[in-house]
């Protein structure tokens, strides 16, 4: 499949129309901003001063690894930080206490998703992750929950085992070592087989490529302030005129992800979950989700973070191998039933999820009514971003937080908290619906790689006198870790 970026070409009529729309949109914003009405005298939470009365913080929000900036800002302004982007109110939640209160206890009023996604700019407007909280979402979420709840995920074990073994075999037969492509193969193939019942044999097939392209193109999409421009009245008309090249380039990619496997699966009719989703409504296309292939990216991000961490911390790898050899015997490959007897491997998994969460600022929640928190006012329609990074890098709870240290998760009684406490999977009612399948996929991949491989640093891994700069290996939007830096010796 070749995906072509269509160059922006507007004729003069389009341009005149576009300018007219822009002017009318700006005047509406101006009026709105001048008449910002509040039915309360309560203040907004603290935040950096607004640089411009009309625009608020528009264009000033950090876009490169912003979770680091927000964590830094919380030292000055407190854990709840407020920004205004045009007329959109944005709140960054930097502590576990805040997310527990605002996304947990207040879940009834803080579990919507931002609407701009639904403004027909993107073909994934009908994805359940971005749909307005309501009847359809409730049904989709129910199906996801039913299909992926803790009690039933063991039905996916055979698929996960088969794909992980294939992955190990590919690595063993290919001396070129590990690449992000092979990891993508692994995660994508597991998710696509589970959701669509299709077998993706090689990364050269359309879907994983398309998923990777979509993530590369959309790396910034979930960052605060990225899509505020979509709240400008009539802006979707400008988008339709082709004003925004990103939409034009990303649309065919998302369509390929959604329609490619969907069409195939319709022919094959083997995907059990797909059939279950179809049963919700006859209008199946509207109720299916384009995320299965994209969520594979999150799993890839976690597994590649694990590989990266092992290449930087050989002592951790040695200790894990010792545990596996002592408990299972040399040359044995771990199974799911071994999980409880391998606490150090479990601690490595927990540390991967803390050290470099795949979505450092989660997925935004939106309030459906005004909230008051500790005397501060959060208007209806506000966007709430949980700074997952800041929670996992809180020095009081995790001393020396940038260090990859699985020991910090080991308790005297040998137990681990429920996976719902892993911040990387989000919070409240909109917590990741696929967390149990993600959890088992990532764990089995980690355990099997540790049992069969030695992960070493390759010579071309760039480092300075102060060591490897970990952040160089992650994108600014947080989605992705480039693993091509490590080699695997079998
Ligand atoms: C490392 C792997 C993964 C991570 C870190 C992750 C993380 C997240 C996060 C942070 C959210 C938003 C939670 C919130 O709003 O607070 C989310 C939502 C979601 N995830 Fe995942 N996810 C992963 C894998 C998966 C997988 C494998 C699936 C599907 C099988 C999945 C399905 C979903 C769905 C359907 C939602 C939307 C839930 C809703 O809006 O109600 N995720 N995920």
Automatic annotation (TrEMBL):
Q: What UniProt keywords are attached to this protein's entry?
A: Heme, Iron, Metal-binding, Monooxygenase, Oxidoreductase
Query: Do you know which Gene3D superfamilies this protein is assigned to?
Result: Cytochrome P450
Query: Is the keyword Metal-binding in the record?
Result: yes
- Show the SUPFAM superfamilies listed in the entry: Cytochrome P450 (SSF48264)
- KW Heme (keyword) present: yes
List the molecular function annotations (GO) for this entry.
heme binding; iron ion binding; monooxygenase activity; oxidoreductase activity, acting on paired donors, with incorporation or reduction of molecular oxygen
Give the highest taxon in the source lineage.
Eukaryota
Q: InterPro entries annotated for this entry?
A: Cyt_P450 (IPR001128), Cyt_P450_E_grp-I (IPR002401), Cyt_P450_sf (IPR036396), Cytochrome_P450_fung (IPR050364)
Chain sites annotated for binding heme: 432
| Pathway stated in the Swiss-Prot or TrEMBL entry | Secondary metabolite biosynthesis
Reported cofactor(s): heme
**PANTHER family per the record?**
P450, PUTATIVE (EUROFUNG)-RELATED, P450, PUTATIVE (EUROFUNG)-RELATED-RELATED
The family assignment reads: Belongs to the cytochrome P450 family.
Q: What is this protein called?
A: Cytochrome P450
Species of the source: Dendrothele bispora (strain CBS 962.96)
